[in-house]
């Protein structure tokens, strides 16, 4: 009992509202952490990453939009969101806080952090399991009491800079940091000033160019150092201050480099927003991908080839979807429109003959006919009237762009600008005030001394392939989603559990407990569980190696395991997962392949899956990739449609 009471609670700090100036006009009225990225608020990605890393208590610090963030968390906890399971979240505000250092000092004054903690920016997207790095930091502190932080970096293969790149000097033996330098936006920068003593006082030093996702593991003493040193305003100030005054402060910083397969990147401007969105759609952030239900416990999208994610409720009529497209809930795209590398939110209406390339549209937007949009962000509630051409334009919330408008490299606000900027704007409608990028003047000296934040643009082949490259063999064999050892291990355990349960006629409730235990051991999402449970059932001996006909084999298994099926396959999304699993079974099991029509019919007759889900699944099967499967199912689908028509006539 005493051991249980003394169990350490894993804590984390999330800093919201960083880099707000880089996300105008949206950051004027809402926290940057709540901006949607691939139709999910950025804060959700950070919270999900912490939840998957075993964090139990999170403190979100927000100064600019405290009430917005607090309301969002309250609403998310009521939903509930995936990350809300087993994790307590507090929102802390500080009106007088103007920088990162002030936030850390405020947290120190409240005395909320009791142990080593994870420090993460709310705009960071990562699939890394941070609990292992936390454990390593504890080991470091055990032999060096002055270890105040372990900074986490990621090696990148691209040479494009977004403002998160750094060059460090590190001792290769103990991973201790000896030099830290933030790199400029100029990718041609080649001159670096490194103190000579870094090399003369250390025998093995490595110089590394890295991406800084701004993730760290901190010791409790890290917060007190901010309180004792008011010149620590940014993370960079803290790092440089420790390196310069290591002996005086008796403090040291260590480094942890994420392995190649782990993703981590901070969204600090629109270019990085575009790059990270592209990486999410291309599944480099797996399992934080659109069809895995990041925000909620249900599947939101049907995942199609060429990285097309389509909501089952979206309405598309003869639309061209090239690649890397996400279309949200209840959105509609008109006849003849073409979309490429774009994200469409919920309840969006796009008219006919529109062209969208690298366009990110938030919820409840209307784009009328014959519009051409490129490298644009369109805020919620806005309307783009017919025949508009926008390139490199940021459209604020609730704007109305009139017909035949042509804009390039501009920001559009829904109301007149304040702070004496009226003379820089031009009014094009009652809810559209335009300011060109070149016309905007910096608000303070700090902005004037720093180059403008990079904007979205055409991604080179190198960037489009992400920082997270695979070997030539992996590239050739890589399908739409990664094949993970964890998924295979989970499937194997479920097959073993169900096989033993079938032989021993075990209580289904015990089998559910075994499956759920395996789920948490392998960190599987609900969608992965649904998918693999169905695959496991069709890999059981009576079905995989039948000595009788398929109906008898199915009855043998389903009569005993029906409680398992109905437990996992009970929603529309779960039914779609079930049918997706059958696609794999069709390729793997020759006997079931020839009887697939009977299998689907059996599941329909037993009410495991509904008619609407079967028809929706059949409709989204690719004519080329699933040609044989569609042919096998054709007669059953025709019968199902005729049966449905007959029922409708009787109702009439």
UniProtKB/TrEMBL annotation:
It is found in: Cytoplasm, Cytosol. SUPFAM superfamilies: ARM repeat, Nucleotide-diphospho-sugar transferases. It comes from the Eukaryota. InterPro entries: ARM-type_fold (IPR016024), eIF2B_epsilon (IPR051956), LbH_EIF2B3/5 (IPR056764), Nucleotide-diphossugar_trans (IPR029044), W2_domain (IPR003307), W2_eIF2B_epsilon (IPR044123). Signal peptide: none annotated. Residues 484-650 form the W2 domain. One of its GO terms (cellular component) is eukaryotic translation initiation factor 2B complex. The keyword Ribosomal protein does not apply. SMART domains: eIF5C. Pfam families: LbH_EIF2B, W2. GO terms for molecular function: guanyl-nucleotide exchange factor activity; translation initiation factor activity; translation initiation factor binding. Keywords: Cytoplasm. PROSITE patterns: W2. The keyword Magnesium does not apply. Component of the translation initiation factor 2B (eIF2B) complex which is a heterodecamer of two sets of five different subunits: alpha, beta, gamma, delta and epsilon. Subunits alpha, beta and delta comprise a regulatory subcomplex and subunits epsilon and gamma comprise a catalytic subcomplex. Within the complex, the hexameric regulatory complex resides at the center, with the two heterodimeric catalytic subcomplexes bound on opposite sides. Belongs to the eIF-2B gamma/epsilon subunits family. This is Translation initiation factor eIF2B subunit epsilon. It comes from Glossina morsitans morsitans. The lineage of its organism: Eukaryota, Metazoa, Ecdysozoa, Arthropoda, Hexapoda.
């Amino acid at each position: 009992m005493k051991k249980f009471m003394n169990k350490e609670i894993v804590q984390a700090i999330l800093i919201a509202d960083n880099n707000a100036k880089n996300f105008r006009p949206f950051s004027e009225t809402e926290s940057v952490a709540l901006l949607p990225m691939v139709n999910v608020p950025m804060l959700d990605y950070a919270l999900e990453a912490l939840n998957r890393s075993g964090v139990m208590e999170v403190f979100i610090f927000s100064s600019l939009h405290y009430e917005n963030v607090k309301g969002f968390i309250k609403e998310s906890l009521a939903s509930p969101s995936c990350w809300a399971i087993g994790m307590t979240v507090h929102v802390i505000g500080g009106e007088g806080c103007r920088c990162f250092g002030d936030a850390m000092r405020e947290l120190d004054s409240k005395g909320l952090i009791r142990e080593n903690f994870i420090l993460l920016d709310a705009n960071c997207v990562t699939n890394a399991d941070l609990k292992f790095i936390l454990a390593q930091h504890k080991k470091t502190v055990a032999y060096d009491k002055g270890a105040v932080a372990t900074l986490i970096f990621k090696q990148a293969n691209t040479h494009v800079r977004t403002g998160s790149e750094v060059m460090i000097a590190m001792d290769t033996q103990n991973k201790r940091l000896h030099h830290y330098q933030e790199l400029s936006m100029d990718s041609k920068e080649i001159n670096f000033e490194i103190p000579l003593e870094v090399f003369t006082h250390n025998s093995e030093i490595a110089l590394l160019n890295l991406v800084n996702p701004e993730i760290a593991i901190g010791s409790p003493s890290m917060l007190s150092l901010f309180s004792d040193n008011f010149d620590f305003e940014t993370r960079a100030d803290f790092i440089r201050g420790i390196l310069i005054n290591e002996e005086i402060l008796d403090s040291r910083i260590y480094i942890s480099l994420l392995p190649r397969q782990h993703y981590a990147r901070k969204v600090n401007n629109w270019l990085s927003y575009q790059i990270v969105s592209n990486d999410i759609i291309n599944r480099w952030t797996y399992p934080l991908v659109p069809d895995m239900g990041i925000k909620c416990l249900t599947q939101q999208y049907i995942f199609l080839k060429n990285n097309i994610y389509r909501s089952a409720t979206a309405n598309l009529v003869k639309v061209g979807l090239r690649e890397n497209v996400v279309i949200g809930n209840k959105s509609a795209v008109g006849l003849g429109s073409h979309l490429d590398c774009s994200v469409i939110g919920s309840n969006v209406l796009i008219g006919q003959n529109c062209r969208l390339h690298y366009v990110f549209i938030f919820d409840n937007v209307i784009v009328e006919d014959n519009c051409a949009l490129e490298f644009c962000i369109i805020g919620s509630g806005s309307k783009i009237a017919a025949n508009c051409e926008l390139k490199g334009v940021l459209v604020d919330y609730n704007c109305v762009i009139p017909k035949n408008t042509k804009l390039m490299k501009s920001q559009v606000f829904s109301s007149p600008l304040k702070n004496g900027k009226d003379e820089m704007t031009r009014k094009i409608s009652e809810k559209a005030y335009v300011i060109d990028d070149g016309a905007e003047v910096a608000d303070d000296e700090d902005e004037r001394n720093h180059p403008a934040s990079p904007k979205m643009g055409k991604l080179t082949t190198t960037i489009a392939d992400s920082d997270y490259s695979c070997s030539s063999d992996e590239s050739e064999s890589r399908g739409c989603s990664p094949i993970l050892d964890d998924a295979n291990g989970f499937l194997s355990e479920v097959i073993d559990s169900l096989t033993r349960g079938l032989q021993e006629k075990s209580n289904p409730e015990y089998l559910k407990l075994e499956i759920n235990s395996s789920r948490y051991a392998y960190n599987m999402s609900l969608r992965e569980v649904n998918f693999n449970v169905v695959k496991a059932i069709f890999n059981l001996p009576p079905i995989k190696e039948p000595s009788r006909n398929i109906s008898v084999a199915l009855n043998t298994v389903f009569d005993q395991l029906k409680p398992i099926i109905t437990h996992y396959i009970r929603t529309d999304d779960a039914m779609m997962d079930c049918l997706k699993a059958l696609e794999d079974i069709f390729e793997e099991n020759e006997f079931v392949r020839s009887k697939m029509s009977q299998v689907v019919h059996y599941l329909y007759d037993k009410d495991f899956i509904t008619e609407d889900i079967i028809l929706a699944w059949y409709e989204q099967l690719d004519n080329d990739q699933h040609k044989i499967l569609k042919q096998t199912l054709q007669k059953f689908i025709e019968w199902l449609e005729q049966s449905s028509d007959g029922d409708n006539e009787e109702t009439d």
